[in-house]
Amino acid sequence: MFFGESTVMLSYPVNLELDTNNSYLVTFPDIPEAISAGDDEDEALLNALDALESAIEIYFDEKRQLPMPSKPKKGQPVVILPALVVSKVLLANEMLRQGVRKAELARRLNVHMPQVDRLLNPRHSSKLEAIEAALLTLGKRLSISVA
Asked: Which part of the chain is the HicB-like antitoxin of toxin-antitoxin system domain (predicted)?
């Protein structure tokens, strides 16, 4: 996925720790609000995506920029955000950078507020065209790449 001139793929490194209950605890060094667990490593990493999306909702609600992921250490597992969620994160972060509120974005797009709320909901399956249009109103271009 391209945003402006740079390639963006959000792969967040995670820490996996075996806890006293013989289950795995997952934490994100870059997103301390995201914490998850699982009975084994696979389940823990699967649950970690849900925890990360929940944390993204917190950042959006609190109007805070989501930090970009740090580089994982060698062999460190990562959780990769789906492309649609990445585009929503980029949209929300750009709105914050430019000081554009949801009401202003709705006005620019000539849509009602619930439509903008859905664009900024990481769990809603928005149409990519709608996110692309929102980014264009902010002077940004979204394009997709397959690697």
From this structure: 12-71
Regions of the chain where pLDDT drops below 50:
1-6
Tokens in use for 15?
A: 């820490």
**Three-class DSSP category at 61:** helix
* pLDDT given at position 1: 42
Domains of the chain: residue spans and CATH: 2-80 (3.30.160.250), 83-143 (1.10.260)
Strands (E), the chain: 2-3, 6-7, 11-13, 15-18, 24-27, 35-38, 78-80, 142-143
Q: CB–CB of 8/90 below 8 Å?
A: yes
Helix (H, G, I), strand (E, B) or coil at 46: helix
Record the tokens describing residue 35, joined without a space. Answer: 């914490």
Q: To the nearest whole number, what is the mean pLDDT of the chain?
A: 91
pLDDT given at position 8: 62
pLDDT for 133: 96
CA distances from 5 to 37, 50, 143 (A): 37, 29, 10
Distance CA 15, CA 114 (A): 36
